[in-house]
Records
---
Amino acid sequence: MRHTLAVLVENNPGVLARVAGLFSRRGFNIDSLAVGRTENPDVSRMTIVVEGDDRILEQVTKQLHKLIDVIKISDISPEEYVDRELVIIKVHSDPARRGEIMQVADIFRARIVDLGRKTITLECTGNNGKINAFEESLRPYGIKELVRTGKIAMLRGLRFTSVNGQKDDD
Amino acid sequence: MEMTVAQALIRCLEMEGVEVIFGYPGGAILPVYDALCKMGSIKHILARHEQGAVHAADAYSRVTGHVGVVMATSGPGATNLVTGIANAYMDSVPLVVITGQVPTSQVGTDAFQEVDITGITLPITKHNYLVKDAGKLPTVVKNAFHIASTGRPGPVLIDLPRDVATETIKLDYPDSVSLRGYKPTYKGHPTKVKEAAQMMMKAERPVIYAGGGILNSGATGELLELAEMLSAPVTNTLMGLSSFPGDHPLFLGMLGLHGTRYANLAVTKCDLLIALGARFDDRVTSKISSFAPDAGVVHVDIDPAEIGKNVQVHVPIVGDVRQVLQALLPNINKKDRSEWLEQIQNWKEQYPMGYARDGMLKPQAVIEAICRHTRGEAVVATDVGQHQMWVAQFYRFKHPGKLISSGGLGTMGFGLPATVGAQVGRPDSLVVLITGDGSLQMTLQELATVVEQKLPIKIFVLNNNCLGMVRQLQEFYCERRYIATEFSFVPDFVTMAKAYGIAGYTIKSHSELDRLLPEILSNPDAVMVNCLVDPQENVSPMVMAGQGIDQAIDC
């Protein structure tokens, strides 16, 4: 089963290496990892998607907790949450096929961010399934380059995950 | 008060109550050594190799209960510490490791003697710091000592670039730490403690499986009380040895791969396994599915990650073993379990620990004789291999904290430097090293430290001219194809001792052993005893890989 973990960490140098190193040396599989600052500049938030049964998840959580720089871990998978990923895709495009590609972009509510002589670059946000479908739809045109951010996620409604309140009601 | 960071570091160590630093100097750590020299408040023990320094600091910590402090320079100085740091990490020993680093302007340029030691030690430290900001040094030191010594103890490394060390700061040593991501749990959950007590009262065949956590938390008194109240036999892990009196009728000795048959049988047949400060290591459990197969498991450990890691636990209690037992004991009533104890007694009689006392000098006999002549009260350091298992099997420790051995990492070469730290920490105790000819040669250079520091260590080399444990593995797993385990040259340890100005003895027979031991043990200086033991002797019993611990074979 896939679990989405929201991990709050001290924004110290090396914290990403500590977390990533822990996953590799303990043999846990990371599906994706996205990291960035939060509303508090001292704190970064990692969204980690990890594959494994409950026992593995328990070990992942406990081992992460042992890292001094890890402040809080929440498994948000059982809750209602919003998740998004951003993809930028550069596809091969002769001027003749541009219209077709722009139609695909419309369907997925993607945006064209660059146009070359023989390429077109699009950005799209959405959940994992939508991004996968978007990628598949563009594959027949010839994908030159593709970059995905990995998933970020947040609980819905009044519930929140922060340093001071883990999944608390506001 | 304004001072250099190096001086501030030494001041901080003083304020942490550090009395001794083990170390080895070099270029990048020069400012710190200079400060140490100028301030003159902390004793420095110069090892002959950084690995020696870190093992000594490790053993010093084990015998004193204080945080061990070790210092080395950048690059090779730092990498030479790595084995010792890993050793301390595996055995949960609190260390603060200070390494010099090249100046910040050169960090990342592959400078002379530069190595990314914080990167290298990431998986073998509890935490580590690269101090780039001079002003943060006091907080870093405060945090390092706090992290190393609280919760599940472990090593913390501080990497200090040379230019930072010479910057001037105003020292303001913090009184407390503020680490929002680090809050160890000491008190067990009351509901779980009650549940555990109920299980203990209900059980018919309980066994207490006690590890190093008992010694770390100082719970030996509580352990004894619990065992006697429950009439429950106690088995120790290697790290737990000496936490329960070796001559107590409820004592089963060590369990696991080379454990006693009665300990392994008791665990296999028990209906409740009470794991206290132990981590179900593979050398203890062997085949997991056959380990205590019919038992409920109560697991008390300060490290939540150890609970449920290897075996399924019925009552998990995260907390300090001592505090948990103190909360638990009032819920326990005296219980008579004569039937179970009778069964245990039968096993003890049926499968006694022993060896054939014929012909050549037997290594086990050397250990039994040392135990007899020291009344089980010596501080015994070991290396790793057959001799280590024989110490575990045949030295009956009377008092807690007297076995200094590399458990988790199994570091050959740990023993000799460990005696340095043990004797420095316990100057009035008799410190004995029981080692093998293989292990001793790994860190032999520390003999110079022993002499220089005038440490009256008694070194017993169980000399069998080979790497006995690996040779034993080759006998059983490789159809006696012996490769790289038999030495065609072993130095004459007695002549070598003479070169260091140490008295040397050679013991070849059981009669010499008993005749010479009183003289050896009462020598006021260091002594080297070369015991020429039967090279064919194996550690027995032994559980073959993949077998249940009740399936041990004699060898």
Note: DSSP finds 23 helices and 20 strands in chain B.
---
Amino acid sequence: MQVFKSYWKILNRYKGQMIMYLSIFMVVLFCFIIPNDMGEDGENQYTSMKAKFAVFDYDHSAASEALISYLEGIHIIVELKEDDTETIQDELFNRNIDCVLRIPEGFGEKLANGEQTGLVEIVAIMGTTISMLFETDLNTYLNFVNAYLLAGYDSKIAIEHTDTALNQQVDVRLPEQGDTSVMGNRYYYFNYLGWVLICMMVIGIAPILMVYNKKNLKERVHCSAYPFSRIHQEILLGVVLTGIGICAVIIAGAVIAFQGDVFSASGGLYILNMFSYMLVALGFAFLVSNLAANVEIVNMFANVISLGMAFLCGIFVPTEVLGKGVIAIAHFLPAYWYSQACGRIEHYTNGALGEILTCMGIELLFAATLVVLGMTISRKKRVEA
Amino acid sequence: MALAIKVSNLVKRYKDLVALDHFNLEVEEGEILGLLGPNGSGKTTTINCILSLLSYDKGEILIFDQEMKPDSYEIKKNIGVVMQNVAVFDEMNVYENIDYFCGLYIQDKNLRKQYVEEAIAFVGLEDYKKFLPKKLSGGLLRRLNIACGIAHKPKLIFFDEPTVAVDPQSRNQILEGILALNRNGATIIYTSHYMEEVEQICTRIVIMDNGKNAAVGTKEELKKMIKNTESISVEILGLAQEDIDTMKRLPHAYSAEYADNHLKINFSGGKHNLVRVLEYLQEKNIPFGRVYSELPTLNDVFLEITGKALRD
């Protein structure tokens, strides 16, 4: 196993960049993506917050009741029996309420007269986001009423128009293709591999293969008593084991991040898809090793291929927002099929298995094509030499 | 004496170019055979065909009486190759490189360890075992290249210009090493552009030209093949054409040329040629400076046989 052992010694010299890319991937996922909302649907991240507030209305006017009614619609009203400083402080300290709104007598009259300051009092914990949100909503309401009053409406109509205006909802729909608008973190974890696997394998493996392809070394090895087939088998074994090792690290990361989800049917499909794509990445590494003249050019190839595919194939940018022309081109790139498989696996049902396996099959065809292309170039270069 | 290599009627074509034209070669076991030839004469093609790195169109190659083919791994176990260009892994240190190449022949771990240590000692790299190749000087790198080729103790070793770009001290060490390998029983095929090296170490020489075997023999035999037996050179400030013509007519002289204040007369056989030249100069009262009398060198042999200088 002389060639196999030498493979690991050479890999040892090139492992730095592989580890760097894997570390960047893991750090980004574990520090920025997964902690945001581990295991929950992405749409929950956009639910607006509601403040718990108590209100003491000393005006009892139509205007004060309309204001309370509006705020009650968008925040949570909590009943407090006494307007007592100590009680309020206790409730705030215990986070039973986020703020207290005190509407003094004469509020309706002042509002109708166009006064803008000192209309209400707010007691809140200073600097909290939720109390600021409450104040913003309150000010928005008062500004709207004031604007209608300035426009010549009487206070009753102004309050009605304000209610109508602020209760209007804009219907926002995310572009959908199946259910891909709602993706879990597991999807993002595996989908981003479409970029990082290509980078790691091309930068890590191609320089090693280039070492064995050096004319002088190749001739010296071919003069030896070591059979050709065994040389190639041992290099192949090293490359495949490197791929499996990287996959094992990624699976370990997924187990830490998603626990039992990895051992589900969809988790298994994600892993299977990752292995298929790993073969594509190794195919690219083999092709680049036959194309590149030196390590700098390998780095260039790695970045162009991985980033190019990541942007065109739905890894960095969802396919829903890509143009039809771009998607048509993406069909000819393996990362597109990898990303499509990830999307389908995320919402896996038994019926979708065929589609998922088709995507993986196409990835394997790409891997085989890359290897054949690499072998053709290698043969051509050998004949020319 | 048994033959280490027998090449018969070897023909190798690159499209329209005939690189080897019915080339024949016999190398006896235990000899150091020098393979000489100008660039493009077919030396490297010959070696590559013998080593099965290149396929050939016609002919037969036997090594130790067995036909050499790309998968003749039993024969290859007895062959060592030291390439013209340094062929080592930049990513592995000196010890690891030698161990790697030795391991392509020797599977036994303990024996290999012993061979690697011996090879390191042989080329004098004991203090550089942990050095990466890029940290070695040109001479040390050449020594590493040699150690990688000979660590498995082959019976037949090819040295393809192993002293190119090597300082004189390292060159002498390499040549002494090759002689030591030969004394230990290895048959050596040595190609070089340096005539003096070939003269110094080779027991027999093959001169190749245009893919053919132009001449074969010991250096003495080769020198006898050519017309020139002695060249006399005299430093003279001004010489009449009449004197040059007279020199040409001296017994055994076949050419006389005067250029840059130097008279050069070539002789084919005869004794006391130098005495006759000096007597003539004295008789004519022609003042002269330094005088040289040179026996033919391999370079003269090469020049006369191939019609071109070795580095053409």
Note: The two ends of chain B are 36 Å apart (CA to CA).
---
Amino acid sequence: MKPCVRMLIAGLLVPLSTTTAAAELIPTPSFSDHAIPTAEVPHADPSSWQALDVGLLTIALVLATYLALVRRSRRGMLVLTVACLVWFGFVRHGCVCSIGSLQNVALACAQSAYAVPWSVLAFFALPLIFTLFFGRTFCASVCPLGAMQELLAVRPHPVPRWLDQSLGLVPFFYLGAAMVFAATGTAFIICRYDPFVAFFRLGGNANILVFSACVAIVAVFVGRPYCRYLCPYGAVLGLLSRVARWHLRIVPGECITCRLCEEACPYGAIHPPTVPQTPQQRARGKKALLGTLAAAPLIVAVLAWLGTWWAVPLSRFHPTVRLAQQVQQEEAGETIQTTYASDAFRNTGQGLARLYDEAIAQQQRFVRIGGWLGAWMGLVLAVKLIHLAVRRRRTDYHPEQAGCVSCGRCFTSCPVELVRLGLIRDVSEMVKEPAA
Amino acid sequence: MALIASADRRRFLRDAIRVTSAVTLGTGVGFLAGQRGRPQDLRWQLDPDKCVGCGNCATKCVLDESAVKAVQCFDMCGYCDICTGYLATDYQQVDTAAENQLCPTGALVRRLIEEQAGQRFYEYTIDTPLCIGCGVCVKGCALMNGSLYLQVMHDRCVNCNECAIAVSCPSRAFDRLPGETPYRLKRQALALLQQKAAGPGQDAARAFLEQVYQP
């Protein structure tokens, strides 16, 4: 047997590592006319790309806002949508995006060793600020994920209100979970379950490809499913958009309540004006509101308590806990199959006790975190119930600011807008009897 | 009248919320941006001392051709004739024939440097464009000197927010390094390189060390 083969076999039996045996090296020879070279590694590309990205994001946000609120040009917005999809999606591979930046911010808040790069911070903050004043123009045409879905929504069907409202809670739960996982350094789940990054990169593993394909197919028949029922950043933007100062309006002037825009919104953000209530209805509404207000603390408390029970399954996402479990199973002889992770751990020569202690500490942390996560979910649920119990008075057609992404699909269904554009001379050409 | 009052109240409330949110956001962002002493520009890198050569680097990267490539630390290399990082376990002959090579892409180039007292010394260089970052040579070399190691190459890495290889790395060898020094060396190699760079005429070594994270 050749010596090297024997050595190889011996090497495969003992864990291969240079860390444990900070070994005696075979000395590097010195040569008569050959200097020992030094390897070269390529320089990191400068952060000029990031500056360019932030610049383009700002320009895109300004343009989107201008096109939606001032020019009211759906065509212009579509051009911008495609441009942003190409740049932020296909050229920059959809990373970093504003949605994912939530996690960087959470991680930086929780862990002092990590700082958010300024460009990521800009991606996080700029859309929030714009939304606070102008509504979700970012969603309309700047966000590559939104852009993708905007272009895919060719046969959108309305979603029943009860389903829309219930699924609308998911982004908030997702937001809570994403924050927790990011802050504990467990995982960036938003990035991991990015629906379109596989398209942007033209590749990905099987799971993500299936997920992407599902979202894409659903997006054809249901308007913006990711934005409405998953996107955690969209949830935040929706909240901020509620107080937007200059939000997009369906009507360029006075609404004539002609109802022509009622069906125009594929995202369910246009609701008809309310009818006056009877005194009985009002009394019942008041009772329901009082009931939900009373139940709110209870809901929060119960879910917080339930949350503490999620600690064990939640903590399994943490690599240290997972490793400790694997090692424990191996030690107990429950499994003979070692994993790369457990092999790597044994190579480090670190004591078992320390690993177990770390894992237990993590699990205890997750008890607390699970409680907070439960409380957050309870709060979301309670606020939603209260929100549903509160009656709002709508006298004309105005998009629901939280749900409206300012895409401008409703513009041309409004006769007042058509008059403004000079396409018709008077609203009476479309509406026989404008309501008073 | 009541309607106007309620509309006014609602408007005031919204204005108040908006201003409060804007101020909170500004303060928060300002606080995060102003955290000095923390590196701002961070790049993914792996710690070769922790790497076990599992092969995930070749397959888990979001790029078709992984950003991770093998690097040779010549100052740690024994220039062996029978190189465990170069030769396949079942090699028939010590030569450069494909079937005798460990590297699946032939990215490890073997070149005779000198013969001293009947012993031949070979230099092993990585042909970087061919390397797929599978770490087979790294695993092989770890049996001897362990001079070959993997690194994230920053001309290729797109610096994902969550590095897909880092997620799947069994030994959790990945973390973020400051952008000015985005490379790592093994501890042994670092000591050797520092020693070498102190010598005269070692500009290459010094330039290399400038890119290396030195804790």
Note: Chain B touches chain A through 83 residues (CB under 8 Å).
